[in-house]
Design brief:
Layout (H helix, E strand, L loop, with lengths): L1 H14 L3 H17 L5 H5 L2 H14 L3 H14 L5 H17 L3 H14 L6 H15 L5 H14 L1
Helix pairs in contact: 1-2, 1-4, 2-4, 4-5, 5-6, 6-7, 6-8, 7-9, 8-9
C-alpha cells in the first residue's frame, strides 16, 4: 500500500513540475515494493507492472518520453493478462507517447492492440483514449496506417 501511495504522490509531484521530488519518491516506492512480503491484500493488486506504469506517467509528465515508453513496455510485459483494464490504459498511454515522439506507425500498431481488447472493457478512460486516438489520426489522413486504424476505430464509435 505504501508503494502504491508513493507512486501516486510521485505522479502528482511530476504533474506539478517537481521532477527531483518525483524521482526521489519513485525510488522510495520501488524500495517499498521490493520489501513487500506478499501477505497483505494490497500487494496482490499492486506489483512491479503497476509501479512501472506510475513511473512512466510521472516521467512523461516531466517530458522524458523515451524513458516513459520503456517503462510502459515493461509494465505491459509484466502485467497479468487478466488485468485487461490496466493493460488497455497502458496501451493507450504507450500509443500516445509513440505518436508524440513522431513514431506514427508504431503508435498505430499499439492502438490496434488497444482496439483488440477495447470491446472487452467498459471504462471511461478507455473511451477517452479512443476519442484522442481518432482525433490524432484525423490529421494524418494520407497515411495508410492511420486509414486502416480509423476504419477499425469507426466500428467502435458507431
Amino acid at each position: 500500500m505504501r508503494a502504491f501511495l508513493l507512486g501516486q504522490l510521485a505522479v502528482a509531484q511530476a504533474a506539478m513540475g517537481n521532477g527531483r521530488a518525483a524521482r526521489n519518491t519513485l525510488a522510495t516506492a520501488e524500495k517499498e515494493l521490493s520489501r513487500a512480503d506478499g501477505r497483505s491484500p494490497g500487494v496482490a493488486i499492486y506489483h512491479p507492472a503497476s509501479l512501472a506504469h506510475q513511473q512512466a506517467v510521472a516521467l512523461a509528465s516531466l517530458g522524458d518520453h523515451s524513458a516513459a515508453i520503456r517503462l510502459l513496455e515493461i509494465s505491459l510485459r509484466h502485467r497479468p493478462i487478466h488485468e485487461r483494464r490496466s493493460r488497455l490504459i497502458t496501451l493507450g498511454h504507450l500509443a500516445e507517447l509513440h505518436a508524440r515522439s513522431g513514431r506514427l506507425e508504431l503508435a498505430c500498431h499499439t492502438w490496434h492492440q488497444f482496439l483488440d481488447d477495447y470491446p472487452l472493457v467498459t471504462c471511461r478512460r478507455a473511451d477517452s483514449v479512443l476519442r484522442r486516438m481518432r482525433a490524432r489520426v484525423r490529421s494524418h489522413r494520407t497515411s495508410s496506417a492511420t486509414q486502416a486504424l480509423s476504419a477499425r476505430a469507426a466500428e467502435f464509435s458507431a
